[in-house]
Amino acid sequence: MEFRQRSVQCVGPVGLHRMAYTEWGDPRNSRVLVCVHALTRNCRDFDFLARALASHYRVVCPDIAGRGLSDWLKEPTGYAIPNYVADVVTLLARLDVEMVDWVGISMGGLIGMALASMAGTPVRRLVLSDVGPEITTESIQRIASYVGTDPRWANIEQAEAYIRAVSAPFGKLTDAQWQHMTEHCVCQDSDGSWRFRYDPKIAEPFKASFSGGPIDLWPYYERVACPTLVVRGAESDLLTRETWQRMGSCGPHAKLAEIPEVGHAPMFLTDDQIAVARDFLLAS
User: Fold this and answer.
1) What is the CATH number of domain 4-281?
2) Which terminus of the chain has a lower count of CB atoms within 10 Å, N or C?
3) Is the pLDDT of residue 212 over 70?
């Protein structure tokens, strides 16, 4: 099944920018699934999940500003969750839909949780992959150690080796899956070297917001009322078991699922992970 590559113009604190997105399935389908990627990733991570669900949904996967095929922002201070939420609301207006289901991995889950916590939210069902209302200091430090470093490689094979090392917590993926993820998250520069397909300055507000302690977003989570599934990597350093379990007993009283031999984060590339999301989303 082929996707359609589109874009929508959004407005931020310092002007206009273009947000790219892929769209799968029947564009007339009123049942819409929005899938949003992690901090340094992009919409093509959802190709496997989108193919599996495109017969049920119109699946829409945006590249959040500064990533993938979307524009880089003029000011890095714009790389913040409230601005990402505003961009997604603009996207929903373009799609002309009232309600959506949501799958968010890490940062994409935070965007979804913020939107789902608002009065009058368009989010009908919410899937959070390895993220919650409390984010550990250890995971923030680990992410900060590589995001924004802007490494360069002589060829795409070197880039893949680096991505396999940095993304080892994704778990046991096939060679084809690693190649797919690499192909869509790097690009060749004018000097022939390869680099990540994201603005290194996305790291600036991420690092500036870190005060040295864990991030506490429980007030947002407790306002979420829609049916919610929280998928945790059993070896995650970002979503602790204690936080994950608490998410099942407050706020939306989420359904909980855990993926063995995976850390941060389950990416919905494998059949077993796709089945977890699909069964929850299609339950109603």
Assistant:
1) 3.40.50.1820
2) C
3) no
